[in-house]
Write a structure and sequence with these properties.
This protein is α+β, with helices and mostly antiparallel strands. It has 2 domains: about 1-75, no CATH class; about 85-224, 2-Layer Sandwich (Heat Shock Protein 90), CATH 3.30.565.10. Helices cover about 50% and strands about 20% of the residues. The chain is built from 5 helices and 7 strands. The protein has helices at about 1-55, 55-75, 85-100, 115-135, 190-200; strands at about 100-105, 150-160, 160-170, 175, 180, 205-210, 215-224. The longest helix has about 50 residues, at about 1-55. The protein is elongated and about 75 Å long.
Length: about 220
């Protein structure tokens, strides 16, 4: 019994260490992006002040119009209506975009959900981590032919249930082994998804995974 517990503790510690590293990368990436925005903001202010001091009103208006368009373009922050969901999504998507993964998100939910914040974090965090891993580009350039890494996310209410769907591109089709999938990423790779399954079961929810050529989809329904 002691050996089994030790193995479980080691796996849990390894999983938590990996999770902390991912959170560190996400926060660091967002910090770098914020520094860039601050730097650009300072430059924009200087340019507009110069136009104003020289009395170039038309140029100033034109600059403001371009700036408004640019701000609309770079405003990639996802606003779902739920604070915790926004925090998870934006941290993960910031990292995915840095890795060159095409992102498509449609998400809108009530502000208050019955699922605990920590459980929501575990579910969506693990689904997006696995999706990003599957989108990782291989070193073999020949394998990249016709491969475009992407993640599609849909989150919304279906009647009285919270519905989450995450679809990602994949170079290899995952093979099923019973209720689980063999991904070829090592024996510990499925640990996160097993936690997702247990949380769904605890809430009386539904967790479905489907693998097809070039894509993998995870769907979840949770009663609210």
């Amino acid at each position: 019994m002691g050996l089994i517990q030790k193995i479980i503790d080691n796996r849990t510690a390894s999983f938590q260490a990996d999770l902390m590293q991912k959170h560190f990368e996400e926060v660091q990436n967002m910090y770098i992006a914020m520094r860039g925005w601050r730097h650009d903001y300072h430059n924009h202010i200087q340019a507009m002040k110069a136009c104003a001091e020289m009395g170039k009103t038309e140029e100033l208006v034109a600059y403001l119009d371009r700036l408004e368009t640019d701000l609309t373009t770079v405003d990639t922050v996802v606003k779902t209506g739920n604070v915790m969901l926004d925090a998870i999504l934006n941290s993960k998507l910031s990292l995915a975009q840095k890795r060159g993964i095409s992102i498509n998100v449609k998400a809108s939910v009530p502000q208050n959900l019955t699922i605990a914040d920590v459980d929501l974090c575990v579910i969506l965090g693990n689904l997006l981590d696995n999706a990003m891993e599957a989108c990782a580009l291989p070193e073999d350039k020949d394998a990249l032919k016709d491969f475009t890494p992407f993640i599609r996310i849909y989150i919304g209410m279906k009647n009285t249930q919270l519905y989450l769907s995450v679809t990602n591109s994949s170079l290899k089709t995952a093979k099923r082994s019973g209720e689980n999938f063999i991904t070829g990423k090592g024996s510990g790779h499925g640990f996160g998804l097993s936690r997702v399954a247990k949380i769904c079961e605890r809430y009386g929810g539904y967790f479905k995974r489907n693998a097809e050529q070039g894509a993998f989809t995870a769907e979840i329904l949770l009663p609210q």
